[in-house]
């Protein structure tokens, strides 16, 4: 290495270091060479190819002209080339290319197969702020089939129109956004209102402000309703979870006079059964069959919880029929044991991956998004209620169960095997808890405390509804679940629970036996 | 003949009361002070303090036994009243820390973290010791009066009452966990320094507290026995055995229930008040659903419907817990759960019932009347 070589290397080194800091320094350092490469590059006949070259130029004007040309004429087929250029370009070029890539990609995605991709492309185009996109959006919106995607395209187009220079275009856009009930437009509209309210505002700004004010009003009232509907939905969803839990409790309570504090843990058994089924599918089956684990887990959860129930009935509860407080304590002990067993065996946090069909949700109207897993739980609880109804009122076992509930001794005299009826009913109620656990894996983690989260509320439902009354249980769970979610946004979840407790106590002042009390001779039983 | 037996039993009970009192009040503290540390007779400060804690729990158990064992009303929310008493004392102790706190502020540490600049109004009564004492008893009593009035008047009974009180414990736990209630949130109140000028870290202070606890337990026991032996006590037992017959005889059962519920709450408050300075911390974890239920298991293990059983159960279960959690920390919930199941299904009368059954089997054929009913009266 020669001594004369050192200054040369320093120049090269500084070149590398200072390159990213802008074209001025770079041209000052190595004007000759760089200038040559640009000027000596061959003029291409195709304007797009030319633009692809020009975008690497160090002249800002040339770059932006090239970018504009690419946006106007280009399509998705250029994306690989642009990515290639961006990969080894300097900072200025990268900045010039970025919007081009974004726009072209989103433009291409507007015609994607996936509705979600089309929608997010439409939403992303607003951020680019390029007027060309308006035409694209409107063209796609005209062809769009899915209303929610179409809505987003129209909304995005109007949002971009807000930035127009033309007063009439802006006015129209403001009005349209109001008609669309656009939540994304709310902040922009409020800005218009604020500028219009300032003392130095021009007449034009004032006109915009009045229009914006109307639109904001429309949007706000719409979203109040949308919020109300979503709250209602969440209430129904919580109610159906409570319902699935308390149905089993209410049947057992009414039939056998057993307070099953371990009911929540039977639910946990169902949830863990689902988890184990999932693990088995991961271990033994190919990934494309993975989603099948969920339907398979249903009978697994039902049967395993029912089995636990049978064992529990045969070993503990059998000795305690009719002694309510004792069953309460003994089953509480069982629940402690099951919980700790789950904690020791499975650890604290395990989760189940939802099958594809239950991920995501449905946008039923502007501002109202209903997750599929919640809808699933609501539907499931309805199915459970119907199933129980048919079992109790339209089947042989049901007749026996109701007979034993009404008068145990008389039923025994008439030849009903009351012991067997008890055992089967208890197992069935436990299986029901297992199904509830199966469904709950879709909305939360599987953890040992799963049952505890709901047990107190579920018992409030049973108490409020009246012992062993299905109708009472349904109404009470709707009431308590709904109230819970109604109060939650106002006062927070904790005080919501306190209010519910106070509410239930006050309610029992008025109806001490619950909503649907047993009447006549059975009343004091 | 039965009367003679009753007096005989009474005198035996009185005798054992004095003996136990003497052991707890004199022998144990003396064993703590006199022997040298390596003597086998020596009782360490830690053990004495631990024993004091168990005796606090025994007061709590007495209250539950009164309402559950004698009156048949299962309250699964005793932890809440315990918590009220404990927090009242805890607030006083927290204010006594003064400038010694970590941040050197007059306010308790947690208020400094949570940006509270001024003492919340409801903390003011607890600046004085008398306020704390009164609060620790009156707050649970008042709360129990309101809650019990609403519950018993509308004839919420049996399991319904148990479930409602459990919901109460759950709700109270949630509320005490919040930071905005200004009670220290999840961390509770702790790091206490002194009580009436005595350092809490001093063994002699702890010994004093222990003696106070023994005296309080003795007083609570005599008080409960007085209630149980009175005419009202007989009504309580009658309510347990057949509430409708009591109603038909012209009594109003809910008033008796309310009375005994309030007494139980007051005892729980006293227990909490004595517990805090000995243990040095109170957190929401001690007032939730599970701690409230543990009280039930103490009484069930000891033998419900007998006051001695409640005391015995509280001490035995807690002692067992402290030993077992030392060796098998993960096993305790299994054992506790197992206790629930076994005691309820096999030994409904608890330890005391078992002892009594054994001794009776020796003497006479099993009596037809329920043992607990005849002794309690």
Task: Give the strand line-up of the largest sheet of chain A.
Answer: 1-2
Q: How far from one another are the termini of chain B?
A: 15 Å
Helix count, DSSP H or I runs of 4 or more residues of chain A:
21
Helix amount of chain B, in percent?
over 70%
> From the alpha-carbon coordinates, what is the Rg of chain B to the nearest angstrom?
21 Å
Strand content of chain A: under 5%
Can you describe this structure?
The complex is a heterodimer of chains A (about 525) and B (about 375). In chain A, about 75% of the residues lie in helices and about 0% in strands. With about 525 residues, chain A is an all-alpha fold. In chain A, strands 1-2 form a two-stranded antiparallel sheet. In chain A, helix 5 (about 80-85) runs antiparallel to helix 6 and helix 12 (about 205-255) crosses helix 21. Chain B has helices at about 1-35, 45-70, 80-95, 110-115, 130-155, 160-175, 205-230, 230-240, 245-250, 255-280, 290-300, 305-325, 330-345, 350-365, 370-375, and strands at about 190, 195, 200, 280. The longest helix of chain B has about 30 residues, at about 1-35. Classes of the chains: A mainly alpha (about 525), B mainly alpha (about 375). The interface of A and B includes residues 334 and 335 of A.
Keyword list:
heterodimer, A: 525 residues, mainly alpha, two-stranded antiparallel ribbon, 21 helices, 2 strands, 2% strand, elongated, disordered N terminus, B: 377 residues, two-stranded antiparallel sheet, globular, disordered C terminus
